[in-house]
Amino acid sequence: MKNELYQSCTLCPRECHADRLSGKKGACGENSVLRVGRAALHMWEEPCISGTRGSGTVFFSGCSLGCIFCQNRELSYGGLGKEISEERLAEIFLELQEKGAANINLVTGEHFVPGILEGLTLAKEQGLTLPVVYNSSGYEKPETIRLLKGSVDIWLPDFKYWDDELGLRFSGVPDYRERAMKAIDEMVCQTGACVFDEEGYLRKGVVVRHLLLPGHVKNSREVLRYLHDTYGNRIYISIMSQYTPLSKDLPFEELNRKVTRREYERLLDYALELGIENGFFQEGEAAKESFIPDFNGEGV
């Protein structure tokens, strides 16, 4: 199955049909060989995921979406990362478990799903018992998500854009909203309502992240409205203010600044008006480069 899925790749909605198995790079910028930039305990996820123990995050190279404002751009499309085997990936999962991780957190791995599945299978055969988190852009295919059924416990997708024009301008895709809606629906169908353990860690369920972009409160309001109207308290919604302009020369003027406190407060007020109860919000100064991991190959 692995060879077939990489040979004419349609794992992501771009469906580039690249023969990644032969070494060609797909729309994600990667061939079929796993590449990872960092594997370590991460303390800056939502409280129910990182907690005090930390989330065992594995940051994969490449990305199927490629947002112009990506804070992980060095890894997503900057060429960073070390090639590893599926056997080494399994070892990494077990090493993170030994370090006390609360879970295994797969960051931007949709284009490596076949290899990830192999690594998870090997690790579970060798004693991996932690919940598995799938941390993604939300630009996914339900068919690919279904491949992960039974292997992923917690889904942590973004829902970036309600306005497809923003998706086209900032991420180069014309159909982000529809893709995210279908992907998240499949995730919720697989896990159902959120389940927590006695320590407050999420063991099963869906947390949808939404990053407020400067100048685009209206887009964010529509995302929150849809998620709450559709799923209510079956999911958690993480409302993020941490947008960080890493460059001052992005081609869209509004993206060259941080989100203002007033913009974020307006969005939080709207969330309260909607009646959102299961949610997370960010306090203090979240838009800092210090929140961005150093992709130096740690743990790989």
From TrEMBL:
Its cofactor is [4Fe-4S] cluster. One of its GO terms (molecular function) is metal ion binding. SUPFAM superfamilies: Radical SAM enzymes (SSF102114). InterPro entries: Aldolase_TIM, MJ0674-like, Pyrv-formate_lyase-activ_prd, rSAM, rSAM_sf. This is Radical SAM protein. Residues 58-186 form the Radical SAM core domain. Gene3D superfamilies: Aldolase class I (3.20.20.70). PANTHER family: FORMATE LYASE ACTIVATING ENZYME, PUTATIVE (AFU_ORTHOLOGUE AFUA_2G15630)-RELATED. [4Fe-4S] cluster binds at C63, C67, C70. The keyword Lyase does not apply. Keywords: Iron, Iron-sulfur, Metal-binding, S-adenosyl-L-methionine. Signal peptide: none annotated. The keyword S-adenosyl-L-methionine applies. Binds 1 [4Fe-4S] cluster. The cluster is coordinated with 3 cysteines and an exchangeable S-adenosyl-L-methionine. Pfam families: Radical_SAM (PF04055). It comes from the Bacteria.
